[in-house]
Amino acid sequence: MLRKEVQVDVEKGVMLPLMEEFYTIQGEGYHTGTAAYFIRVGGCDVGCHWCDVKESWNADLHPPTHIDTIVQHATQQAKTIVITGGEPLTWDMGPLTGALKDKGMRVHIETSGAYPLSGTWDWICLSPKKTKLPVDDVYAHAHELKCIIHNKHDFIFAEEQAAKVNGNAILFLQPEWSRREEVTPLIVNYVMANPKWRVSLQTHKYLNIP
User: Which residues are listed for S-adenosyl-L-methionine binding in this entry (predicted)?
Assistant: First the structure.
């Protein structure tokens, strides 16, 4: 049970349940291959059965950390910061992104869009999930739509989501890692037939980096 003052700071976004933070190479989507500092925030109730970071779901497992500490660590190593989860929009991202922007950082988010958008972002990667659909506001602001393909039916879902994002959003289809051998050929064929889409791969796993 969090102390009352800590709970208040978490609700304000001044402290966040920090799962991990690390400097690495962006592995997915539009910014694949570029260096970035990742901040993984705990807490998620979207419940994707194939999630490879299930340990992020329970926010209580991750210590509330003051954003000043998070910012200090992040700004020592990179100019681009990626905030991910878990589902980071579970929390108010305004204080953290504001502090990072004050330091001249480019700030990106990886989100399912299941909660209203908060914070100031240079890049929003929307990766919607069937279990808890994005709120309407996120579609309008997404720079990138990344749909995970686990089976053939996911192409239908991807098209439904593509119809909702703004016209400037870049569209990606990405194989779910445990099914990559089965679905990657399907994605390749689909993108060739529907060239508005691009292929995204989890290249960090091939490179054996975080």
Answer: 50-52, 86, 127-129
